[in-house]
Write a structure and sequence with these properties.
352 residues, alpha/beta, 13 helices, binds nicotinamide-adenine-dinucleotide, binds 2'deoxy-thymidine-5'-diphospho-alpha-D-glucose
Length: 352
C-alpha cells in the first residue's frame, strides 16, 4: 500500500502520518506539503527517518509537480488534508483559502483523473453544514450552508470532489469531521491558544458571549477514522466524523483553566467573529455502522493529555509563537477590545 498524503506537516496530517508509520504494517507514505506558517517538520521528527517515508516540499496548486509525483509514485490512495484551515485568517484574507482549498483541490482532482488514481479521500469539515439550531444534527445528506470564506472554500472543494465521482467515476470518498484537538495544533485555534495562554498567564480571548457550541474530536480518533475510510469506505460516499461531545466554548475554557491551574480572571470577552456560526452538531452513525469506527477518547482524557503535551513542549510552542504568529495575533486580537490589549501581559494568578 502506498499513500500520497497532502498537508502531512500540519496538525491532523502529521498525526495521520505518525499513525500510519507507527503501525506494524506501515505503508509507504509520500507527504506533499508547502510548509506554510501551519506546516512544521518538527511534527514529524519521530518518523522522518522511517524507510517508508518521503517528504516532498511543494504546492498542491503546482500542476507539473503533482503530475510528476503521481507518475513516479503511482499511489494506491491520495489522502488530501492540505488546506488553509483557519476561519479567522480566511476572514482577514480570503485569497489563500481560495487558492489552496479550491484551486489546489481542483489541481489534485485533475491529476488523479489523468492518472486514474485508485482512491481519493477528500478531508472536508462539518463547517460545510453551517450553524444548526438545537436539537438538529447534520447527517451526510444535510444541505450545505457555509458561512465564512474558509467554510465556503471547503464546501466548494467538497462539491467539486463529489462531482469527479459523479461525472468521471473517480473513486472519491469525502470525510466531514468536527473540531479536532490534541498535540502539535497550531496555537491559533481555540484549544491550543487558550491552553498556551493559560500556561503563560496571558488573557483568554472569548469571542462574543462564549456560548457557541462545537463538537470536540480527539485528533488520534479522527486519524483512525480516516484510516477506516481509506480501507473500508465506499466510493462516492460521504462520512461524518464527530467526537460525540458538544460543549459551549465557555465550558471548554473553564475546563482549560481548571486543567492548567489558572484563574478565571484571565477570561476576556472580546468582540465576536463576524458571521460566527453558533452551533455545529453532526451524526456519525454512518461511519460507525459501516466501518466499526468509534471515538475512543473522552474529552476529559483528551484535554488532560493535550494540556500535558503543551506543558512538556514549551520550546515547540515558543518557536511557533514567534515571528509571523505575533503579527497575526496583533491583527486578530488588538482591535477586539481595549481590555485585552491593556492586560496583554497579565501574569498567571494561581488558583487558591
Ligand atoms: P493545518 O492548518 O494544521 O495544516 C495544513 C497543512 O497544509 C500545513 O502543513 C500546510 O503547510 C499545508 N498546506 C497549506 N497549503 C498548502 C498547499 N497549497 N500545498 C501543500 N500544502 C499546503 O490544518 P489541520 O487543522 O491539520 O487540517 C487539515 C485538514 O482537515 C484541512 O483540510 C481542514 O479543513 C480539515 N479539518 C480540520 C479540522 C480541525 O479541527 N482542525 C476539522 C475538520 C476538518
Ligand atoms: O468544525 C471543524 C472546523 O473546526 C475545522 O474545519 C476548522 O479547520 C477548524 O479551525 C475549526 O473551526 P472553528 O472556527 O470552529 O475553530 P476555532 O478553534 O477557530 O474556534 C472554535 C470556537 O472558539 C469558535 O466558536 C470560535 C471560538 N474562539 C476561537 C478563538 C481562536 C474564541 O472564542 N476565541 C478565540 O480566540
Amino acid at each position: 500500500m502506498k499513500l500520497l498524503v497532502t498537508g502531512g506537516a500540519g496538525f491532523i496530517g502529521s498525526a495521520f502520518v505518525r499513525l500510519l508509520l507507527g503501525s506494524a504494517d506501515a505503508p509507504r507514505v509520500i507527504n506533499l506539503d508547502k510548509l506554510t506558517y501551519a506546516g512544521n517538520l518538527e511534527n514529524l521528527e519521530a518518523v522522518a527517518a522511517h524507510t517508508n517515508y518521503r517528504f516532498v516540499h511543494g504546492d498542491i496548486c503546482d500542476t507539473a509537480l503533482v503530475d510528476a509525483l503521481l507518475t513516479e509514485e503511482k499511489p494506491d490512495a491520495i489522502v488530501h488534508f492540505a488546506a488553509e484551515s483557519h476561519v479567522d485568517r480566511s476572514i482577514f484574507s480570503p485569497s489563500p483559502a481560495f487558492e489552496t482549498n479550491l484551486r489546489g483541490t481542483f489541481t489534485l482532482l485533475e491529476a488523479a483523473r489523468a492518472h486514474q488514481a485508485p482512491r481519493f479521500v477528500h478531508v472536508s469539515t462539518d463547517e460545510v453544514y453551517g450553524s444548526l439550531e438545537a436539537p438538529l444534527e447534520a447527517d451526510e445528506s444535510f444541505p450545505l450552508n457555509p458561512s465564512s470564506p474558509y467554510s465556503a472554500s471547503k464546501a466548494g472543494s467538497d462539491l467539486l470532489a463529489r462531482s469527479y465521482f459523479t461525472t468521471y467515476k473517480l473513486p472519491v470518498l469525502i470525510t466531514r469531521a468536527s473540531n479536532n484537538y490534541g498535540a502539535y495544533q497550531f496555537p491559533e485555534k481555540l484549544l491550543p491558544l487558550m491552553i498556551s495562554n493559560a500556561l503563560e498567564g496571558r488573557p483568554l480571548p472569548v469571542y462574543g458571549d462564549g456560548l457557541q457550541v462545537r463538537d470536540w474530536l480527539y485528533v488520534d480518533d479522527h486519524c483512525r477514522a480516516i484510516r477506516a475510510v481509506v480501507e473500508k469506505g465506499r466510493e462516492g460516499e460521504i462520512y461524518n466524523i464527530g467526537g460525540s461531545r458538544s460543549l459551549p466554548n465557555l465550558e471548554v475554557v473553564r475546563k482549560i483553566l481548571a486543567g492548567t491551574d489558572a484563574s478565571e480572571t484571565l477570561i476576556r470577552y472580546v468582540e465576536d467573529r463576524p458571521g460566527h456560526d453558533r452551533r455545529y452538531a453532526l451524526s456519525s452513525v454512518k461511519i460507525m455502522r459501516e466501518t466499526g469506527w468509534a471515538p475512543l477518547t473522552s474529552f476529559e482524557d483528551g484535554l488532560a493529555r493535550t494540556i500535558d503535551w503543551y506543558r512538556q513542549n514549551g520550546a515547540w510552542v515558543e518557536r511557533v509563537k514567534s515571528g509571523e504568529y505575533r503579527s497575526y495575533y496583533a491583527r486578530n486580537y488588538d482591535n477586539r477590545g481595549s481590555e485585552l490589549r491593556r492586560t496583554g501581559s497579565a501574569r498567571r494568578v494561581p488558583k487558591p
